[in-house]
Amino acid sequence: MPPPQHRSKSLPSPPSVRERTDTRDPALAAIAALLAEADIEIGGGRPWDMTVHHPQTADRILARGSLGLGESYMEGWWDCPRVDEFIARVLIARLDEKVGGTALLVQGLRARLFNLQNLRRTWQVGELHYDLGNDFFEAMLDGHMAYTCGYWKEADTLEDAQAAKLDLICRKLGLAPGMRLLDIGCGWGSLMKYAAEHYGVSCVGLTISREQAEYGQQRCAGLPISFRLQDYRPFNRGGSERFDRIASIGMFEHVGQKNHPAFFEVAARSLESDGLFLLHTIGKNVRRTPTDPWIDRYIFPNGDLPSLSQIADASEDHFVIEDVHNFGADYDRTLMAWHERFETAWPRFESRYGERFHRMWRYYLLACAGTFRARSNQLWQIVLSPRGVPGGYLRP
């Protein structure tokens, strides 16, 4: 069953208001002026223009920034045919830096003062997000059940892009029959299943989602793959279990800066001295940027995107960085493909989740697409080795 905030079946009817761009409303005038910097109009006719339905929308956005923008969309206070393009334009114009500073300040202070990804809190994202329902994610994702960025260099479909991403990872790791692969944050086992079937390796996967572990084990039946329902930190504490290769695909975003050293220590004690470790993660451009408060509250609780410098700082005691590959622009196309599949499948899930969830999930997918289109977020694949590859590492 979904968490409580996902159970609303309908939206409350907002007060009846006319479309207002009246400059006598100070809040609306202020928002209109800001949006004009991004070539967005209130009440305009272009796909990225905003239509306001509720008289307090502007006040809420000015007071709460990103949190107010997302919450008011969830509740039907405003609409826009192309939320993805709206968000991209807002970010390119850097309007996010001018609104809702208090919410961002609070979010930044929380991250600095507390370990938001401690062992007690780490299971929250699994329960809130990944345990929504395997059938729900089946409808949105491709046949591999890959819930990370696809690689679209030579792909035309989501299925092909995800297969290309999985094969790229296997080739970067140099997988060969007989090797053992550890997947930290393995999801439904998309990488492990592909690697076992196409490269003849055996795999161990760690996940904090019970739904993922049970469903993944069923999908991988008959293959040399095991799922372990546990946090990464206590894994292989004595270092007795060693793997030829390690991958972590789209999980590092949940680790948090305070836990980066522990994450790389786990990888270091679990990898053979001549092994390779591939880290695939979303990242931010500037380390001081706090987590978006709307994403933190409604989608990925306790998430924390790393900067490239934070990854380098945390890994330098254990690893040599061999290769950094940025294909963040591909996440825009991946998210838009997920959104298309989500909307097509929505009638099957409407009675289970309700319209508020529908708008929340649509906003999540489209707003995230906008962040990658604006190049505010990145997607890195980083290959690391314990001691440096003799003669150098060459990306396949």
In summary, what is this structure?
The chain has 396 residues and is α/β, with parallel strands linked by helices. The chain has helices at residues 26-36, 57-74, 83-92, 101-113, 124-130, 134-140, 158-173, 190-199, 210-219, 260-270, 293-298, 308-315, 329-373, and strands at 51-52, 78-79, 180-184, 202-207, 225-229, 243-249, 271-284, 320-326, 377-385.
Notes on the protein architecture:
With 396 residues, the protein is α/β, with parallel strands linked by helices. It has 2 domains: 4-113, no CATH class; 124-328 and 375-385, Rossmann fold (3-Layer(aba) Sandwich). It is built from 13 helices and 9 strands. It has helices at 26-36, 57-74, 83-92, 101-113, 124-130, 134-140, 158-173, 190-199, 210-219, 260-270, 293-298, 308-315, 329-373, and strands at 51-52, 78-79, 180-184, 202-207, 225-229, 243-249, 271-284, 320-326, 377-385. The strands form 2 sheets. A 7-stranded mixed beta sheet has the order 5-4-3-6-7-9-8, sandwiched between helices. Strand 6 (243-249), helix 10 (260-270) and strand 7 form a beta-alpha-beta unit. Helix 2 packs across helix 4. The longest helix has 45 residues, at 329-373. The protein is globular. It starts with 25 loop residues before the first helix and ends in an 11-residue tail after the last strand. Residues 1-9, 13-21 and 102-118 have low confidence and may be disordered.
